């Protein structure tokens, strides 16, 4: 997944969390880059017609950007699900973030053939927990939270 | 460099995906090689099942040889990757479980025709090529030292990549010969 795909995916998820444009600072934090680097990439995304930036409000994806973000999110879901379900990686979220630059959609497509992914993917991705809501780990965490609330 | 003509330019037509990515530890390296093992497992399982499902009578000698060679080569590649992981400072992974999982998935698949088999093989070889290419680039971008000698590691991966490139060329040659 290239850098632009990682950014549109991050903006897509932040827009869901914030229910509006993604703040540049929050995006920079999520991407673990400086605000200047985030701004530079936002400019590139704007020039490619993938995002729109409004001063003091933040960045929003265009329709084209949303399509690209959802594709990237599907690739990311495949990586997370593969790490969690096939390789039994406990900290699959951190490792997925590490691996996403080197796993493109072609390779993810092959990995996808041996995992069970829901047809609603990527809508089942939970931006808050940064994982597919159907992943076992999420279920376990949800159960723990429910028990704690009780 | 363009290695063949069927719109599958290995060197020039495939977009780079690993910009800035570096492999910095034994752990990261092992994880990538595990993915390589799974990809090879998929190639082997698909080749085997294509052969089984289509049957000897339906497949001519050229395709039978291609599938047989693909399965053998993937098996050998897996063993070479496993040998590298064994020498890294990481916990081992139960490969039998992965093998069983892939096998279970492909026990149910059935190629529709010869074209389906060939395109599938082409996709397998291309994906594996692309994967090794990205991993090599990510290692070259890093100055990390691994438990295994860097040059030895890179030589192994370059050899695997070269064999995948040969595989892509072979499938392409057969496909073009049948047009």
Commentary on this structure:
Chain B: This is Rubrerythrin. Chain B: InterPro entries: Ferritin-like_SF (IPR009078). The complex is a heterodimer of chains A (150) and B (179). Chain A folds into two domains: 3-66, Orthogonal Bundle (Arc Repressor Mutant, subunit A), CATH 1.10.10.10; 69-149, Diphtheria Toxin Repressor, domain 2. Helix content of chain A is 61%, strand content 8%. Chain A contains seven helices and four strands. Chain A has helices at 3-18, 24-31, 35-47, 63-86, 92-99, 105-112, 136-149; strands at 51-54, 58-61, 125-126, 131-132. In chain A, a hairpin with a 3-residue loop joins strand 1 and strand 2 (58-61). In chain A, helix 1 packs across helix 2, helix 2 packs across helix 3 (35-47) and helix 4 (63-86) crosses helix 6. Chain A is elongated and about 45 Å long. The model of chain A has no long low-confidence stretch (mean pLDDT 87). Chain B has one domain (26-177): Ferritin (Up-down Bundle). By secondary structure, chain B is an all-alpha fold.
């Amino acid at each position: 997944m290239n850098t632009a795909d990682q950014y549109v995916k991050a903006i897509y998820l932040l827009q869901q969390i914030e229910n509006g444009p993604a703040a540049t600072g929050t995006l920079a934090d999520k991407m673990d880059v400086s605000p200047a680097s985030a701004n530079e990439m936002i400019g590139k995304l704007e020039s490619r017609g993938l995002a729109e930036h409004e001063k003091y409000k933040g960045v929003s994806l265009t329709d084209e950007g949303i399509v690209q973000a959802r594709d990237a999110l599907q690739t990311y879901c495949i990586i997370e699900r593969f790490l969690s379900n096939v390789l039994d990686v406990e900290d699959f979220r951190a490792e997925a973030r590490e691996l996403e630059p080197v796993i493109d959609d072609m390779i993810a497509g092959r990995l996808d053939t041996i995992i069970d992914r829901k047809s609603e993917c990527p809508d089942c991705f939970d931006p808050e927990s940064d994982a597919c809501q159907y992943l076992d780990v999420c279920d376990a965490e949800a159960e723990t939270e429910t028990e704690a609330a009780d | 460099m363009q290695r063949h003509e069927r719109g599958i330019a290995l060197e020039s037509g495939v977009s780079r995906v690993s910009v800035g990515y570096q492999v910095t530890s034994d752990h990261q390296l092992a994880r990538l090689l595990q993915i390589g093992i799974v990809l090879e497992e998929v190639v082997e399982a698909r080749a085997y099942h294509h052969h089984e499902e289509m049957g000897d009578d339906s497949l001519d000698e050229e395709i039978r040889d291609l599938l047989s060679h693909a399965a053998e080569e993937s098996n050998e590649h897996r063993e070479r990757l496993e040998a590298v992981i064994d020498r890294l400072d990481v916990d081992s992974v139960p490969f039998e479980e992965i093998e069983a999982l892939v096998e279970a998935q492909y026990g149910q698949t059935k190629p529709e025709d010869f074209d389906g088999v060939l395109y599938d093989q082409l996709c397998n070889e291309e994906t594996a090529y692309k994967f090794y290419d990205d991993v090599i680039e990510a290692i070259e971008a890093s100055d990390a030292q691994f438990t295994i000698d860097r040059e030895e590691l890179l030589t192994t991966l370059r050899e695997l990549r070269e064999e995948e490139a040969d595989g892509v060329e072979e499938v392409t040659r057969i496909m073009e010969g049948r047009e």
